[in-house]
Design a protein that fits this description.
The complex is a heterodimer of chains A (111) and B (113). Chain A is mainly beta. Helices cover 0% and strands 60% of the residues of chain A. Chain B has 113 residues and is mainly β. Classes of the chains: A mainly beta (111), B mainly beta (113). The interface between A and B is medium-sized, with 21 and 25 residues.
């Protein structure tokens, strides 16, 4: 069965800290791995990763995929209170448009 | 552009009642999806539609029906609501065919008593 596991489930940090969120998967065939940020409402897109070893960056956020070890990480440096959210990892299966989501990591950043 | 819109935002139903959740997108996307989100369970796919006129089951389709009315609209129907269907429902759309990012609507919070 295809499975996406995120860790930790929850994380509490202070502003300025750096955090690393993990996404591991047991999916045999996927086209891309996506990261989303979910605050109060709808998930919003952060990154899409298709190739192993190539880092994607956007400001203080970065992400990388390791297809050999079957995981991805999302790094956030110099965290701010506005980074508080649930971060979701999802895999898009080959030959379909189906996304399989992990359960998410809840990040709380305190001043 | 409004993106993906959903109605209603909130709904309370009694067990056995029926209702339809509406979703529309104005991005000319081919694919549309319905998810439910429960605490500790992440987002789970209920049904999706890869193009107008086609629908396919996702991970948790039981108790639901869908209609892809046209390219813009994709509705989700609960024929006989059950307390287990209490959840937040999200509609999403994507261009499909190699464009993988899905855009989500604001969600509908449904409570079945």
């Amino acid at each position: 069965e295809d499975k996406v596991v995120q860790s930790p489930l929850s994380l509490v940090v202070h502003e300025g800290d750096t955090v690393t969120l993990n996404c591991s998967y047991e999916v045999t065939n996927f086209r891309s791995l996506l990261w989303y940020k979910q605050e109060k409402k709808a998930p919003t897109f952060l990154f899409m990763l298709t190739s192993s070893g190539i880092e994607k960056k956007s400001g203080r956020l970065s992400s990388i995929l390791d297809k050999k070890e079957l995981f991805s990480i999302l790094n956030i440096t110099a965290t701010q209170t506005g980074d508080s959210a649930v971060y979701l990892c999802a895999l898009l299966l080959y030959n379909t448009d189906k996304l399989i989501f992990g359960t998410g990591t809840r990040l709380q950043v305190f001043p | 552009n409004a993106g993906v819109t959903q109605t209603p935002k909130f709904q309370v139903l009694k067990t056995g009642q029926s209702m339809t959740l509406q979703c529309a997108q104005d991005m000319n996307h081919n694919s549309m999806y319905w998810y439910r989100q429960d605490p500790g369970m992440g987002l789970r796919l209920i049904y999706y539609s890869a193009s107008e006129g086609t629908t396919d089951k996702g991970e948790v389709p039981n108790g639901y029906n869908v209609s892809r009315l046209n390219k813009r609209e994709f509705s989700l129907r609960l024929e006989s609501a059950a307390p287990s269907q209490t959840s937040v429902y999200f509609c999403a759309s994507s261009d499909g065919g190699g464009s993988d990012e899905q855009y989500f609507g604001p969600g509908t919070r449904l409570t079945v008593t």
